[in-house]
Amino acid sequence: MLEIRDLEAGYGGVMALAGVTLSVAAGEFVSVVGPNGAGKTTLFKTVSGTVAARAGSIRFEGQDLLAVPAHQRPHLGIAHVPEGRQVFPSLSVEENLQMGAFTEAGRRDWAANIEYIYRLFPILLERRRQLAGTLSGGQQQMVAIARGLASSPKLLLLDEPSMGLAPTVADQIFDAVVEIRRARNLTVVLVEQRAVEALESCDRGYVLETGRVVLSGGQNELLSDDRIRKAYLGM
Amino acid sequence: MSPGLILLENFLQALAAGLMVGCLYGLMCTGLGMIFGVMRVINFAQGDLMMLGMYAAWYLFTGFGLLAVLGPYAGPIVGAIMAGPILFVAGWFIHRFLVSRVTGVKVASTEGAGHYAQLILTLGVALILQNGGLILFGSEPRSVRTPLSSSAWEIGPLIDNDFVSVFLNQGRAVGAVVSIAVTVALFLFVSRSRLGKALRAAADNPEAAVYMGIDVDRAHRVAFAVGTGVTAIAGGLVAIYYPFQPYVGLEFVIVMYAGVVLGGLGSITGAFWGGMLIGLVQQLSTLILPVQLQNTAIFVVFLGVIFLRPQGLFGRNVERV
């Protein structure tokens, strides 16, 4: 579904991605882990088009994604839940979800999606008229994920959904992600610093360091790799 | 009449004038507030775009037969409203070919977010419009000649049979009513419609808006064009009672910015009430101060409000993250 080849991207003189090759098959749950500054967020932004690629290619369902303007990529079925949540603070919760449903598919499936979302996150139903900027961090993360779901995506990109959340709240969010993936049969790519949880819930994983893929493999393979255990799992 | 009643009559008269002028200022401010709220661009040319709106209304009225067809009462009003779509188109092109080069998502991540280029650009557009206006329209002050501006409705007498009457200049009164209608329409557009919500989303967080599939540059273009059109309508309405020349924009752009900042940046309703407050202060100050000091009074109140509430009267603390 997503084919990334020798992708290079950066900011000014800084190279953030130095030739990343990565693929995701339909229905897969893929985790991308790695330390700060490894290029994980840049990878997502390049897929979404808010960072320009300098070299390489990205194909989504066979289509050359780099030829599609950033604002049209969501309409192809890519939902990007950005790092740091980035909800629309002065819009209500429900208006945030409506913006998620800006895509044609999202509008078509609005009734079913909204019902699913409110069942998944009942607190959002309760707060649907509240301004998203006044919610707690965990609730904002729920809005961000729900907003992604509201677009009826084929591919869900989740960038550090646990960032800045209390551990119990982060666990809740993780459970929700696993549940969403199971219930909706979505293709999910998860970027996470909490490597254990990320690797435990995925099918396959990639380890990114300084803009390069240093390791990739199935869940068990990665979890039993000595380097991973030392560097990320603290064992 | 006793001195007390005269005082009361003067006060009510100034209050009525303030409310009417306030509605017109409010409409102007809403137009600017739309542009500033969505794009965060300081548009120095707003006053001059309003000037174009005044001339558009004037030409429609005198040159294009609105006077002949609709008469001296409905003609100026229809002319003012039609100035809106005309300047909407002008705003669309100004954004498409000039403003969009120095604004938008691409620029937002650059150093200083492109603000220097934006300031110089809109200042340049302002100067070109002023001087171009001078060449095209001449320096002679124009006014939309209509009986509306020289006649008044009398409210009252409010006490007994012959005391305390308030006179409403018909030009201003009709302008105020149209202003309220346009403001309400704009408010409904921004708060209820899908496109309006997309504009607010693009204002809140342009990057996240892209992730929703919103074309942020296009959202900015819509905001710029709508903001220009709305201010042009206000201009056309002001032209009914106020003589104008190509430099008239300077007088109003300051008022507009004061109103938008007073109301709280980025809030459409706030911008309207900010403009309203300025109209009220301007007119009520004439009760105790010489007329020449009315703009001074505005800025004393302005500084007072900013000192006590830096976020403006309706500014939210939630604001952008």
UniProtKB/TrEMBL annotation, chain A:
One of its GO terms (molecular function) is branched-chain amino acid transmembrane transporter activity. The keyword Chaperone does not apply. The keyword Amino-acid biosynthesis does not apply. Keywords: Amino-acid transport, ATP-binding, Nucleotide-binding, Transport. InterPro entries: AAA+_ATPase, ABC_transporter-like_ATP-bd, ABC_transporter-like_CS, BCAA_Transport_ATP-bd_LivF, P-loop_NTPase. SMART domains: AAA. Pfam families: ABC_tran (PF00005). Belongs to the ABC transporter superfamily. This is Leucine/isoleucine/valine transporter ATP-binding subunit. It comes from Prosthecodimorpha hirschii.
